[in-house]
Amino acid sequence: MTAVEYLMKAEELSDNEIYEEALFYYTKAVELDPNDPYTRASRGLCYERLEQYTDAIDDFFKFIQLDPTSTFIYKDIGRCYANLNQYEKAIENYTKAIKLDLEDELVHETHLRRGFCYMQLKQYEQAVIDFSKAIELNPTYTFAYDFRGDCYKELGQFDKAIENYAKAMELDPDNSEEYRESIDSCKPNNNDNIKSAEEYFYTGANSGLAGEFEKAVHYYNEAIKLDPNNSLYYSARAAAYRGDCYFSLKQYSSAIDDLSKAIKLEPNDSKAYFIRSLCYMSLFQDEEAIVDATKALHLSNNEAERKVIEDLLLNLNNSKNSNNTNINAIHANPTQGRRLDF
């Protein structure tokens, strides 16, 4: 038999989902014509269906070597890496597919798959971007609404999560019970039995201590809705914003807004002044930072806290009077590794 005959036989078997036998014929075709890109890609797909993902990836990369102008294969590579739980590599290849395969009519699916990988890596904000793009390209894409709801739930944005689950249920009524369960899981009274501002506040505090700052902000928001005149809730929500911004969001302005409200309600709150000074410093607004740090020092009766504030003021004044080009490092880490207990 010739390579073409082996290939035709393999295709026939593959069409009938007899993949093990098809693989034998694909391999015979490759042995006779190792430089045919189509045969490589076809055998790669056969390997994938047999869940032999590493072998599939090898064939797909060989296809790219033989035919560099064909970009559709990156989706297949990404899919195999995702099945191997190698999500970073999957994202890398899905990204190539999105950028290079401009004629792909199913690019919304690639955004969904990449978003799912971001979900597995707990990069929920990035996942939301992909799911939103998938919805933009295909407004009736049920999976995208469902997954986006999951992300919003993980981020503590329960209203948005419910909105997305409801849309998925509208598009897919046959699975309405599943979506109703997802919606119910987002309702605080069902989830945490929270009824008072105080309970919301302490739930937010626990989320913040666990490093779940987005969830903490959600609970502090609810506390503020129930008791908008309590300065403690504004300070706490700002602390959550600031903690999150150090790691990813950098929402210093939002933190400053909340701290300013807290100070208006409680003008002698030294911690609010101190945290606001750190936010100003992170925004390179040193004059404002010095004013707030000085006020915090005047108000504070805690020796450990006063020591941290004094060090901050020293850094700020050195920054103000220095031409040191490395002064950015001070702004990036204004407390110099100290643990702040607020």
Please explain how this structure is put together.
There is one protein chain. With 342 residues, the protein is mostly helical. The protein contains 20 helices and no strands. It is elongated. The protein starts with a helix and ends in a 10-residue tail after the last helix.
Short description:
With 342 residues, the chain is mainly alpha-helical. 75% of the residues lie in helices and 0% in strands. The protein has helices spanning 3-15, 19-32, 37-49, 53-66, 73-83, 87-100, 107-120, 124-137, 142-154, 158-171, 176-185, 188-191, 197-209, 213-226, 231-247, 252-265, 270-282, 286-299, 303-321, 328-332.
Low-confidence stretches: 243-248, 335-342
Strand content: under 5%
Number of distinct beta strands: 0
N-to-C span: 77 Å
Order of helices and strands: HHHHHHHHHHHHHHHHHHHH
Mean pLDDT: 82
Topology overview:
Blueprint: H1 3-15, H2 19-32, H3 37-49, H4 53-66, H5 73-83, H6 87-100, H7 107-120, H8 124-137, H9 142-154, H10 158-171, H11 176-185, H12 188-191, H13 197-209, H14 213-226, H15 231-247, H16 252-265, H17 270-282, H18 286-299, H19 303-321, H20 328-332
Which descriptors would you attach to this protein?
0% strand; elongated; mainly alpha
